Amino acid sequence: MEMYFETLQSYRIAYVRQVGPYGAANVEAMDRLKHWANDQELLTESAILLGIPQDDPASTPAQHCRYDAAIVMTKLKLVHSDAVEMSELSGGEYLICKVKHTAEDIQQAWNEIIPHLQKNHHTLDHTKPVMERYRYQLLKNHFCEICVPVKLV
């Protein structure tokens, strides 16, 4: 697994929200987003998709957990659609973990993230969401990136 720090820029995003237990419904939300983005001609090789869990399932009842399937809006056109919501995602310092896109590898990454942050004098920045970032070149090779917001200790 590859880990490095990166400063992410702020993004304008279009997203589909799923409320309920994390899991299969998140995949359905991402599929709905992709269908909409494809219709808008936004699903290109340069597209950036994001999976953004908004709540910690350890402290939020499963039926209230929010997950946003999002796409970075690089075109300057305004979008008015009942299919998606629009928002701004603030940038900042993130630990990026490039992992195989499997449940096992993602779980293993989480076992290593906190010790890696501590070793590098960082802590989780709870004011920003953790995200999974999907870019074409990585996805076609079955990888994704876990993006963990951080701050110096």
Largest sheet geometry: 9 strands, antiparallel
User: Which structural class do you get from the secondary structure elements?
Assistant: alpha+beta
Q: What is the averaged pLDDT score?
A: 92
Radius of gyration: 15 Å
Number of strands: 9
**Total of DSSP H or I helical runs spanning 4+ residues:** 3
Question: Low-confidence segments, ≥5 residues, pLDDT <50?
Answer: none
Strand content: 35-45%
Basic shape: globular
Tell me the name of the CATH class: Alpha Beta
Q: How many structural domains does the protein architecture include?
A: 1
SSE string? EEHEEEEHEEHE
* N-C termini distance: 24 Å
CATH architecture: Alpha-Beta Barrel
Q: Considering the protein shown, what is the CATH homologous superfamily?
A: Regulatory factor, effector binding domain
Kindly report the oligomeric state of this protein.
single chain
Protein name: DNA gyrase inhibitor GyrI
Describe the protein in words.
The mean pLDDT is about 90. Strands 1, 2, 3, 4, 5, 6, 7, 8 and 9 form a 9-stranded antiparallel sheet that branches. This protein has helices spanning about 25-40, 105-120, 135-140, and strands spanning about 1-10, 10-20, 50-55, 65-70, 85-90, 90-100, 120-125, 130-135, 145-150. It is built from 3 helices and 9 strands, in the order E-E-H-E-E-E-E-H-E-E-H-E. It has a single domain (about 1-150), classed as Multidrug-efflux Transporter 1 Regulator Bmrr, Chain A, CATH 3.20.80.10. It is of the alpha+beta class and about 150 residues long. This is DNA gyrase inhibitor GyrI. Pfam families: GyrI-like (PF06445). InterPro entries: AraC_E-bd, GyrI-like, Reg_factor_effector_dom_sf, SmbC-like.
